[in-house]
Amino acid sequence: MIPEIEELYQEVILDHSRRPRNFGELPDAAVLVHGDNPACGDEIHLAVKFNGGGGLEDIKFTGRGCAISQASASLMTMKLKGKSRAEVMDMLQAFHELVTNDTSEAPQSLGDLRVMKGVRNFPQRVKCAMLPWRAVEQAFEQGAGEATVSTEPA
Amino acid sequence: MSAANRTLRRADCLLRIKWRTVVHRADYGVHKVIGSTVDWNALREDFPILREQAHGHPLIYFDSAATSQKPRPVIEALRNFYEHQNANVHRGLHTLSSRATEAYEKARKRVAEYIGAASADEIVFTRGTTESINLVAQAWAGKFIREGDVILLTEMEHHSNLVPWQLLAERTGARLRFVPVLDDGTLDLAQLPKLLTPEVRLFAFTHISNSLGTINPVAELCEKAHAVGALTLVDAAQSVGHLTINVREVGCDFMAFSGHKMCGPTGIGALYARKEILDLMPPWHGGGEMIVSVALERSTFKKAPHRFEAGTPNIAGAIGLAAAIDYLDGIGRAAIFEHDSQLARYAFDRLNELPRMRVFGPAGERGALVGFVMDAAHPHDLTTFADQYGLALRGGHHCNQPLMRRFGVSGTTRASFYFYNRIEEIDRMIEILHKAARFFS
Is B7 inside a domain boundary? Predict the structure, then answer.
């Protein structure tokens, strides 16, 4: 097997794409963000519930997409549950660095998310990995109700 | 093959077959065509890019429906123009300007011959299919379409034959109607009598679907449209480089196509329009080249086709397109169609061997492409995977979002072929897809 493929599609990623965690509806969600990647038709519907401190009490998603976007969403929701707004934004920044910057060391704080490092070798796939993160960013900005976010801003 | 299919084949795919016994042309060199037998392997030598490697593997280029590769005679024509003829057209009185003008207008004539137009005056050079359709949607439709008029399209149209009409509908209050697509990827022609009513002013449809490979019966569709007084526009982007199409035999009023999908350069294409229609159309872009005289308050315009070519045109592109046409005619489009559709049918059959595979479009005769979805892998994962083996596939919605929705998918993977592809490359694709199926399952 080709090393770049093995690095991009690590077993953990394939596992999360086949059996995504936190996949489903969140009936009492505060914000529902519909994210889409018009270039490929992929979509994610991210539902979040905030706790008293404005952090993430619960987070779930539905939708369909490639292995990278599905695994990214699954890993992200596991990582972000219980995190404060500031922590989420820091992590978004660190994750973006991870999948775009060739030289950056993967920070320990990212934990399992570091398996997404292989995406940096495939610039066309960065949007797939970032889609769920753009959705969660939008959820914080929105605060309540429904919103949409796209990899190709209109 | 059913009688209906035979008719379709005769009327639309193999119009005006002439197996050309092509003699060696001094400027083409290598390919050897003896009677109807083409040395397809030798033709590959004309395409320098096919010697490229991708990720350490020999390139397998299966994305010709997006853009074809360019043979040496086309590359040489561009070079020759810039080295020996480059000047602006139609206004200089010096030697180079006459050379450039002559070459540019000769290219127009060559395009006209290639599609069987009555004269070069029926050919407007554009940037490509998209611009050609927009020209019709603005210059023709802007003048002739009123609120309540209907533009009939099909569900399989490329966004370029959809969005310009949506914009027109917004501007004018015209309505859009769509011929549905059946599960086998063909048009539901049984619906035509209901859809083709006297309110229909234009029926615009693709010749070959860029996602499904379906070959539409263009001559029949034109005839039916004309019977209710509608004009017709054929989107020939996927067909004009692959098969013989004669606009007068098809009977269309407009035909749009791109140079870059038929071995020509990017940024050049053409709109064919019947002269009596073109003459009635007002200009759409204003500027130099398209005027007779200009005063501060108003201007008068040249006759068609120059009225529609404001500004310095893509001169080198037009000359490159003419070289591409010479090249394709040197091989013979009937032979190209036979070769490419055989590849596509072979790919269709072999793809169906794969587990949990859905292959789109008709099982029989088809254009030079095949779209598919594998349960095991999303189109984007599949194309990323294949690319690592040097195989260039295309994954996504292919500018066919409504059609994708019609089939309940967000996208497909597409393999599209041209005469420089070989059957062994399809075998290799199948091997790689088997690997992918194992990897992602």
Answer: no
Look at chain B and report how many structural domains it folds into. 2
> Are B167 and B267 part of one and the same domain?
yes
Collapsing DSSP to helix, strand or coil, B100 comes out as helix
Is the residue at B13 inside a domain?
no
pLDDT of residue B5: 44
Strands B150-154 and B200-206: parallel
Give residue B211's domain range.
75-328
Is the CB of B381 less than 8 angstroms away from the CB of A67?
Answer: yes
- Give the global pTM: 0.90
Q: Which residues contact B416 (CB under 8 A, 6 or more apart)?
A: B62, B63, B64, B65, B66, B368, B369, B370, B394
| CATH number of the structural domain spanning residue B80 | 3.40.640.10
Nearest CB neighbour to B404, from listed A41, A122, A128: A41
Distance CA B309, CA B286 (A): 9
With a cut of 60, say whether residue B4 has pLDDT above it.
no
Shared-domain flag, residues B316 and B338: no
Pairwise CA distance, residues B173 & B126, whole Å: 27
Chain A residues with CB under 8 Å of B388 CB are: 2, 4-5
Tens-digit pLDDT profile for residues B223-280 = 999 999 999 999 999 999 999 999 999 999 999 999 999 999 999 999 999 999 999 9
Rounded to 10 degrees, the C-alpha dihedral B108/B113/B118/B119 comes to 20
Q: Phi-psi bin for B258: left (phi > 0), alpha (psi -120 to 50), beta?
A: beta
Catalytic residues of B, by residue number, are: 399
- Nearest one of A61, A68, A71 to A32, comparing CA atoms: A61
Same domain, B395 and B300: no
pLDDT for B3 beyond 60: no
Q: What is the CATH number of domain A3-150?
A: 3.90.1010.10
CATH number at residue B29: 3.90.1150.10
Task: State the smallest CA–CA distance between residue A140 and chain B in angstroms.
Answer: 28
Which of B55, B374, B380 is the best substitution to test chain A (most A C-beta atoms within 10 A)? Answer: B380
Q: Give, for A49, the enclosing helix (H) or strand (E).
A: strand A42-50
Domain definitions of chain A by residue range: 3-150
- Taking only the tens place, the pLDDT of each residue in B44-83 is 999 999 999 999 999 999 999 999 999 999 999 999 999 9
- The pLDDT, as a whole number, for residue B36 is 54
Interchain proximity A41–B396, CB inside 8 Å: yes
Residue from the list B377, B384, B410 with its beta carbon closest to the beta carbon of A64: B410
Say if CB B140 and CB B274 are below 8 A apart.
no
* Residues B273 and B407 reside in one and the same domain: no
B212 in Cβ contact with B237 (< 8 Å): no
Same domain, B108 and B252: yes
